Records
---
Amino acid sequence: MNDILPIVLSILVALVVIGGLIPVLVKTRRNITRYPETRDANDPEVRSGGGTAVEDSTGTIERGGPAGVELDDLDTTAVPDDAAGLETIPVETPLPVAGRLSRLRERLVRSNNIMGKGLLALLSSDRIDEGVWDEVEETLLLADLGTEPTMQLVDALRERVKVLGTRTPEHVKAMLREELIKLVDPTMDRSLNVERHADKPAVMMVVGVNGVGKTTTVGKLARVLVAEDKDVLLGAADTFRAAAAEQLATWGARVGVPTVKSDIDGADPASVAYEAVKAGIEQEVDVVMIDTAGRLQNKVGLMDELGKVKRVVEKLAEVDEVLLVLDATTGQNGLNQARVFSEVVNITGIVLTKLDGTAKGGIVVAIQKSLGVPVKLVGLGEGADDLAPFDTESFVDALLN
């Protein structure tokens, strides 16, 4: 009996260890479909970045793949039924765009109206002399409006004050509103180019420096598009930042959007972007959104690679939208970033994050004047639905209320 006891104990220990490993092994297999290495022998720019994967938010294996990949070639190892629910992320219902806009306007009124109140107080003075105009100019410059737009607004206000004569607070507010709306420019086209083409999806690239919230913006924008009944696919071409692909996939899973990503750290971003668009064409989605690495604007090599990503994607489909994400709190430094990016890729719109808190409202005008590119989206917080289309009149009204 004494000889048998150690054997029995050893068997029990082995069973416990094996039982603990099974969930780990299942977890690593769940929700992943790997594609074979892809390479275009005639195109050195399109090279493999390692196997890519489509991560499906439903907790099942996604069996579709890019054009040219046979089903038999895919690694579709069966997942036990009892493991299908592991770490499943519930699919959320994003807020309607209209409700989101209303909420953002309220937050903007509370957090970003220092400039408007300062101007109203100055221009409602009994006597407006050169000292007052100097203060008006200083207020505008401190609000990151920029030198040229500041002088343009001050000149317009001087002329109108002369004509107006008596100035009640109501008259001053109406005058300021009209001039600020002109400056922000309601004629700019702020719509997103996300309409599907006859045989291909619309393709959007999201670019910007480290730390401005690009991946989060892509996730939030996916929610906006899903709320508009768009079929979306995400491409995780930020292969340099640790866990960026997983972060993007999590955002996608929350709204039922699949993500194409590489399973190799430091994989070629152009290859991942290429595979994402390829999968989007095959699966007939409406929009493919590509998240890129955070490029430092003074790193020439990285900026060149961003241009390469765009060129490679355009071998499959036109890039309809290139959104530059800027942190509104960086002020004039954001302008320098914007100029550099505009030289590498054709920026079609700006996303201003963190427009609440310490941000200055004037940065909207400064960026638009500098680049001739409209601010299309604004973010006013960390919440999943704190991103909305930019509206000129609502923005100005928020500054003045």
---
Amino acid sequence: MKLTVFGATGGVGREVVRQALEAGHEVTAVVRDPARLDVLAHGRLRVAVVRDLTDEDALVPLLAGREAVVSALGATSNKQARLTPVAGPALRSIVSAMDRAGVSRLAAVSAAPLAPPTPADGVFARVLVLPLLRRVLRDVYADLAVMETAIAASDTRWTVIRPPRLLNRPWTGAYRRAVDANVPGGRVISRADVADALLTTLSDPSTSGHAIGIAT
């Protein structure tokens, strides 16, 4: 599969690039600083430097001829999200550029606190953990909410992945999934497994149009 990966220098994005290359995909990694992409040079890897991800005209050539797009974009802190939102503005331009380039499949990472609360979350999570996270990281989640709205309103065949707290642990492939909900009792997951989930959904049409909760 020919993929374009946004957010390729982040913790999840680097794993997406690495795993995609190992799986035999062709990858265009879109970055602002190529020095941060600590993936070895590869015959199926193209690195494209784009400073402004809201510049549709710059994005279209990076999407032409691609079969799918993976976004691992997101603010690194609440302050950054407040001052310069990342995911929302970028995804509005990305989905529009995808339409112009004729690319329809999209997988994007979001976050578990954006899922609506359900009894399966448990009282502790519903009453304390999730409300606290939503308050402390309100600008990060506001940015991701704008992103999810832009994606849902697009003509793409989209899947949003909503993980809980991310850890730098090895890939396992042994995580749980929940459709349009959080995984009951799910508190953590490795960045490597989030990358696996993003790539796996691309070839799973049953996930199209859904937000998938994942956790170990």
---
Amino acid sequence: MSDFERYYQRIRSQQKRANLLWSLLLVTLWLSAGQLAEFDLLTIWQSLPQFFDYILQTLPVLHLPLLFADGKTAGSLAYWGYRLPVQLPLIWETLQLAIASTLIAVVVAAVLAFFAAGNTQTPASVRLAIRSLVAFLRTMPELAWAVMFVMAFGIGAVPGFLALALHAIGSLTKLFYEAIESASDKPVRGLAACGASKLQRMRFAFWPQVKPLFLSYSFMRLEINFRSSTILGLVGAGGIGQELMTNIKLDRHDQVSITLLLIVLVVSLLDTFSGWLRRRVVEGAG
């Protein structure tokens, strides 16, 4: 056996031992966490039939000969969607919440990120203060923010907007300043040698490098905010989630299914559109 083969076998043995140890550690952590949280796979397995029974209850009863009858005929599509005049405006409100909160968050996070980055010559105290603030904002989940704002401002779209915007600012600022810190410093040094100001270095050295990442993260956050806004409605923060919770509480099973279908359709369309827009803006694709 050659020296290379012996070296290769030794490295392979070390990798196998390391993989085995990490696997055992992860399994131990998973079992310990499950025991502390009273997580039981057997209980989930035994409860699955009840879950599927509820799903079956939410499915509408449609009859093919009556499919396109009027809204007063049971078994028709119109009868199933009799609450669409209420649900469609709520879907639009949910989308508006996502767009408005994302736009505000992107602007604020972009400004904060340049002051929080370690390679923009920002004073350490300012950098630490901004990083601590955004860490707190993203540590608090949107649902917790929404509950507090509902208590303060009442039920409506304002609590949902504030909750989404604050959490998005915390998440996007971290992503943005990490993107700035990963940018090349060669253009910065070149502009500094020419006597460019700090603002000019940010504008002409950092921004062209990080712009594609900023846009990608912004589009991704828009998709996340729409999904989150449907959840926030469950606590009275506006949007289609409020309608979903009402239907569940009132046992309007058929309306639960059509509300979920609307959410899935809009999320799919939003994903498709944001992906196309991302390619157009970031990659310059047609």
---
Amino acid sequence: MKNDTKINFLLKNLFRGFIYSLIIAAAYLLFNKFFIRTNEELWQGIFYSNPAVIYLIYIGSEVFFGIIPPEFFMLWAYGNNDLVGYILNVAFFAGVSYGAGVLGFMIGRFLRKTVIFKYMGRKFFQRYWPQFKKYGSALIIAAALTPIPWAAISILVGSTEYRLNRFLYVAFFRILRFIVYGFIIFQTHQL
């Protein structure tokens, strides 16, 4: 019975993630049609002239609660129309995201007994704490695959007695997200 609850939780969140992906795809297609295609040179210059800025924005976003969805960066990576470059960029984004989760876990582990963390925990994690107690690893998997904030869940999990080696194993679902989304983005641009 307990596993059924976890599976239902995962399926519900995967469905939400699918809807979220459709919204991002629609927003991208509209933005591309009405803004980018009308002045491609300007947009190319803004986004592709200095890739280091894009990488720094991505790293900052992943470390600080995933402010910008990683799918936008995968769309950016496709803009070079180079398959090898696209694969390398998606692999880089996946590695940074996985690493940001591990860093979040370690931050949670290190700061869990401090007063400031206890305050932050009440303020920022109160929504996810009951879910973690109820679903455990299923919440980590859902955060890895869906829009549930990956960095926040990683910090929350690190602040518990959850084993690091188990977290490292379960967190590999984050890489799966990049493989699936990267493949979908590549295939949709081939049409």
